[in-house]
Structures are given as structure tokens and as C-alpha cells.
Amino acid sequence: MATADPQLSEMIEEEFLKCKICFELYKTPRILPCLHSYCEQCLAKMLEKGQGTICCPECRTKTYVQGNVSNIKTNFYIKGLLDLFESKRNKDAVCSVCQSCSDTFIQLPTLVHSFDTEDMEDEFDQNITGIASFENGDIVIADESNSIVKEFRQNGKTVGDTSVSEECCPCSVTVCGDTVYFSSTTKLYKITGDSDIIQINNLRGSQTSYPIASYKGKYIAVSEGAACTLSLYDPKGCLVDRVKPHGYHGGKFMFLAVNSREEFIVTDKAKKCIVLFTKTGEIINVCSSAGSGKFVPFSVCVDHRDNIYAVESGRIIQLSPKGEFQRVFVDFKDETFRPKLITADAFGHLIVTDKEGSIRLYKIKTFSIRMIE
Questions:
Q1: pLDDT interval class at 371 (50, 70, 90)
Q2: What gap in Å lies between CA 360 and CA 189, rounded to an integer?
Q3: At 168, is the secondary structure helix, strand, or coil?
Q4: Cβ atoms of 207 and 223 closer than 8 Å
Q5: Residue 341 in contact with residue 299, Cβ under 8 Å?
Q6: What is the spatial distance between Cα 70 and Cα 221, in angstroms, rounded to a whole number?
Q7: pLDDT (average), residues 129-150
Q8: Handedness of CA 204, 215, 361, 74 (dihedral sign)
Q9: Could you tell me the CA-to-CA distances from 351 to 108, 137, 310, 347 in Å, in that order?
Q10: Nearest residue to 221 via CA among 163, 277, 270
Q11: Which residues lie across from 222 on neighbouring strands?
């Protein structure tokens, strides 16, 4: 059986995974602006409460933390490495790319940018109900409260917005080709290049919301709730197919994604699971847990390697392309940011938004650790 070089593992653990204050493995690692990292608990002990500052014990740089060390950014590199070492203590790691080679691949998130999408002209507090990305990386969101579809660059610059009437306020949103589509109650709409809004079809059933996703510019997939089916519409709104996993009943389909192999990943609100199935209805896997505790998956997406990511109980979890739980990718339990929706672009970014429209972009970096016999 392949195992990691013990000397290398010990060196990595000693040099990179131990806090320089308590000399133990990091617990909730936080990174200061000077790029030195420490445990959150250790930083809390150093907080100069009267001034709300922390003096770095290594370089003596002072950092204002607004009275709470939880305002300091999490070091996701260290957190990812800790997760990897923990997983290797419990079981042999497997290559998430080919499942057979002697390399261990690990995806680590790096926060590269964050911005707020709220506009001074918004009449109400935002309620973001949909997020998607264009092929060029631009981000589009649906703000149901203000009946607006907004588009942004990845640096947060506004590209434009389209106001939608209250009769068809946007719910879920997707990009098919270079056109934005959104659902509203039981209708499917598209936004033309001239910002005109055109209804292209009535959706079957009587769900209060219909999450949607697209596949390579060929069709828009619509999740149909308690029917546990997906309807596929071409860009003109014509029904081209319906997909239902064989023998699957009693659930309520919610968010969905389509991977490069044209397999469907759907979260089930009633059964509290993530279902992966083919276009012919064959169920590949049903994921119903992510470690201990309740499992409540919400929004879901796939990256360019077909790895699956889902928002689940205030964190982002990662599943393999086969739908098997691998690890917690980002945990927000110690932050005020509460993830709601998630999407991935073709450039290796994971894009997350909360209900109020705060957006975070994470770079998904893949590292390989060579295994030896």
C-alpha cells in the first residue's frame, strides 16, 4: 500500500502546521496582514482590548481587529493541509482526478477577492436567489427582493443590471451560451442582448421556485421539486427531454448542476441528500452525510475537474466526481459570512454569495503529493 514519506510529513507538520505561540497544531488558523498565522485562541489572548489591536509576536506589526479576532481572515492553506493530514490519519488518500495513480491530489481554497453587490438604488435589502457565471468569468446574480438581475466583473465592477417587473421577479438564474435565463414562479425567461425580457416557456407543476442550470450552451435543466424530475429546454424554450432517476420517489429536488459527462447533481430537500445520476436515469451515488451531525445540503456546483461542491450547514463541502464525500472545503462557522449559493467558473474559481449579496471568490488550487511504496 502506498504511504507518504514519514520524514516529509513530519517536516511539513512541524514547519507549517504548528502555531508559533502554543507550538501545537493550529486550531482555527488566522492570518494577519503581515502574513504570519496563529491559532484564533492564541490571538484572542494577545488582543489589546482597550485598543482593539494585536501585535504580531514575530515581526511586531500591529493589526486593528475591530475588537474581535474572528474578523481576521482564516488561513485556508493551513486549514486545507490540516484537513489533508487528518484524512490521511484516518484512511489512505485517493487521487481525486484519476482514482488510481500513486499521487495524492488535494484542492486548497485561496480567497482572492470579495465584494458587496448591494447598490444604493436598491429599494429593499437584497435577497440573492440565483448565481451563475459567464464563460469569460463575469458573475450574474438574481436579486428577488429588488426584482433585478445584476452582472459583475470578478473584481466587483458592475457590468450592468436588468430590472424585472414584479410579475416575473427572478428566482434562479443561469447562463446558456452567452444568454442569461431565469425562472420566476412557473415561467422561464431569457434576457436578450438589448436587455429585453422574453418568456420562453411555462414550467410544469406548481412549485414556488424552480432552480435551473445549463449544459454547454445546449439546454437549460429545470429542477421540478416533488416530482423528482428534470425538464430540459433548448435555448428557444422547446422541451427536449425529461430525466428522472430510476426508482427515486418521496424527495423534493432543489438545486442542481451538470458536469462535463452530462451527469446531473441535485440536492434533495426532503431526503436531505445529494443525488448523482445519468441522463438515462441511472443513479450513480446518493450522498447523505458529511461526517457527524445533520446533513442539510443546499446549493451545488461542479468545477472544471467535475469535483462537486455544496453549501451545507454554514460550510462548503467537497465531493468526488462520483458523488462521494471527501472533506469540508471551507468552514464559515467562526465567521459572520453565511454562504447561501455557489457556482464555479472555467478558470478554477469557486464563487460564493450570502443572502445579502456579499460575494467571495476562491481560487481552487490543486497540489500533488507524491506517494512512495
A1: very low
A2: 27
A3: helix
A4: no
A5: yes
A6: 40
A7: 95
A8: positive
A9: 14, 10, 12, 11
A10: 277
A11: 212, 231
Cell triple for residue 301?
456546483
Residue 124 has pLDDT above 50, yes or no: yes
Cα(42)–Cα(75) distance, rounded to whole angstroms?
Answer: 14
Cell for 129? 436567489
Q: What is the model's pTM?
A: 0.74
Task: Convert the pLDDT of each residue in 5-23 to its tens digit.
Answer: 556 666 667 677 888 888 8
Q: Which of 161, 168, 204 is nearest to 183 (CA)?
A: 168
CA 204 to chain centre: 28
**Residue 313: burial class (beta carbons within 10 Å; 0-12, 13-18, 19+):** middle
Radius of gyration of the chain from its Cα atoms, rounded to whole angstroms: 22
- What is the C-alpha to C-alpha distance for residues 371 and 76, in angstroms, rounded to an integer? 23
Q: So what's the pLDDT on residue 102?
A: 47
- The residue behind cell 501545537 is 24
The C-alpha angle 112, 214, 186, rounded to 5 degrees, equals: 115
Q: What's the mean pLDDT in 54-82?
A: 83
Which one-letter DSSP state was computed for residue 73?
Answer: P
User: Interhelix angle for 6-16 vs 76-90, to 10°?
Assistant: 140
| Cα(309)–Cα(300) distance, integer angstroms | 6
Instruction: Give yes or no for a contact between 295 and 270, defined as CB atoms under 8 angstroms apart.
Output: no
Beta-sheet pairing, 197-202 with 212-215: unpaired
